[in-house]
């Protein structure tokens, strides 16, 4: 299977929490973005919740005709060095026009998404991939990204759900954690990986690099294989 080399890169508190409002207050938050750049991942991937908070326009798409697309397919609206990929399983997020974006949007959705939503994305000059009957087939999407969009390296920078989904599918080559010098400690806050079903075994990692920063932050990188 040919797919992009994929790194999950997250900033966390010492106790592994990733709430964005909290991590933005941690010492060394500026260094997180420098470490992301150092990983050389022109394409980045976020989940729907993260995208709704940080990228998408307010509101929810309401299809007048809910007829599903019903098959695998893709629409390539831009040739770019890197893409801002968002996993939006059923096609709900609203977007600005992506014409001329240096890092254009690319939406991953499932085949049950309304054909009208995919037409909406086309009208906004936003690329998309539809694969997987009820949920996005991430493994197949990775193949399409490699073969049709020439994505060779990408970083997963979303939340716990999307991180765990890529982990479950065996699609992560590296785990990169930028640990800020602070403790969250609040109950029920998301961690880097969360909600994994009981049948999944422990994922063993191999330490590949450690770097410290003047802020007290530590950058730790692991290989998954």
Please explain how this structure is put together.
A hairpin with a 5-residue loop joins β9 and β10 (218-223). This protein is α/β, with parallel strands linked by helices. The chain has a ten-stranded mixed sheet with strand order 3-6-5-4-2-7-1-8-10-9. Helices cover 22% and strands 23% of the residues. It has six helices and ten strands; from the N terminus they run βααβαβββαβαβαβββ. The model has no long low-confidence stretch (mean pLDDT 95). It has helices spanning 20-23, 29-38, 48-54, 115-123, 138-148, 160-168, and strands spanning 5-12, 43-47, 73-75, 84-87, 105-109, 127-130, 153-156, 174-179, 206-212, 218-223.
Helix/strand-derived category reads: alpha/beta
Count of helical segments? 6
Uncertain residue ranges: none
Strand tally is 10
Mean pLDDT reading = 95
**What percentage of residues falls in helices of 4 or more residues?**
10-25%
Query: How far is it from the N-terminal to the C-terminal residue, by CA?
Result: 16 Å
Q: Provide the succession of SSEs.
A: EHHEHEEEHEHEHEEE
Widest sheet: strand ordering: 3-6-5-4-2-7-1-8-10-9
């Amino acid at each position: 299977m040919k797919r992009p080399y994929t790194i999950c890169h997250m900033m966390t508190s010492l106790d592994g929490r990733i709430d964005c409002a909290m991590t933005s207050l941690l010492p060394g938050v500026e260094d997180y973005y420098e470490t992301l750049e150092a990983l050389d991942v022109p394409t980045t991937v976020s989940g729907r919740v993260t995208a709704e908070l940080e990228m998408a326009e307010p509101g929810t798409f309401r299809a007048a005709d809910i007829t599903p697309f019903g098959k695998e397919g893709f629409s390539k609206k831009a040739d770019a060095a890197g893409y801002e990929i968002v996993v939006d399983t059923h096609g709900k997020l609203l977007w600005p026009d992506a014409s001329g974006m240096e890092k254009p949007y690319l939406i991953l959705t499932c085949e049950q998404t309304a054909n009208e939503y995919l037409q909406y994305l086309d009208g906004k000059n936003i690329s998309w991939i539809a694969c997987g009957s009820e949920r996005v087939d991430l493994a197949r999407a990775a193949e399409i990204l490699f073969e049709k969009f020439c994505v060779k390296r990408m970083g997963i920078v979303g939340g716990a759900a999307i991180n765990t989904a890529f982990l479950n599918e065996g699609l992560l080559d590296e785990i990169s954690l930028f640990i800020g010098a602070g403790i969250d400690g609040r109950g029920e806050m998301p961690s880097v990986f969360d909600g994994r079903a009981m049948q999944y075994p422990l994922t063993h990692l191999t330490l590949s690099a450690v770097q410290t920063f003047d802020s007290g932050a530590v950058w730790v990188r692991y290989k998954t294989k």
